[in-house]
């Protein structure tokens, strides 16, 4: 996936490991989509000092996509005999959010970049899952479709980042965040989650 600027790439082995427990993976995935929808609605009210045309439209569009993804993943989960639970832990996203600085523009910029990072890594993971789930036509098609949708979200978040701050500022911060993301992901424990660590054996 040469178009993805990630600093680390997921081995196919990870996909086979997490797909060994597809129900747990779908539950984790459902929570990510819910969180992404919440995050988009929250970002919607955080436009920068100067009104930015397209801001509200972008985030309401993303929120609608994420709610649709949540509905899809829940439908697949229920059909396969699973159900959503109430509690969900996401140490990967929490560690990324800890990188967000306080203060008007810096905070909005960092939140956009963290959102872009999560979309970007999800994209990469969905590509691996789409390949590894080849024996399961429904899951393979679902993951491949999500790759395209989340790639669009990553691009739109990064584009907004470049609209609210100077290019050299965004470039530097983005490179820093990409490096941090690879470190944070490498620290995650293995398990049936979209942002779990890859167990190397
Ligand atoms: Fe999504
Ligand atoms: Fe997304």
Defining key terms:
7 helices; 69% helix; 201 residues; 0% strand; mainly alpha; binds fe (ii) ion; globular; Ferritin
Secondary structure layout:
Blueprint: H1 12-18, H2 22-44, H3 55-79, H4 91-97, H5 104-132, H6 137-164, H7 167-186
Helix pairs in contact: 1-5, 2-3, 3-6, 5-6, 5-7
The structure holds fe (ii) ion (2 copies).
CATH topology heading: Ferritin
Number of strands: 0
What is the domain total for the residues? 1
User: How big is the Rg?
Assistant: 17 Å
CATH superfamily: Ferritin, core subunit, four-helix bundle
Broad CATH class: Mainly Alpha
Structural class: mainly alpha
Measured between the Cα atoms of the first and last residue, the distance is: 24 Å
Which of globular, elongated, flat, extended, rod-shaped describes the shape? Answer: globular
- As a percent range, the share of strand residues is under 5%
**Continuous helix count:** 7
Helix amount, in percent? 55-70%
Identify low-pLDDT runs: none
Instruction: List each distinct ligand once.
Output: fe (ii) ion
State mean pLDDT (0 to 100 scale): 94
Helix and strand pattern: HHHHHHH
Largest sheet: none
| CATH architecture term | Up-down Bundle
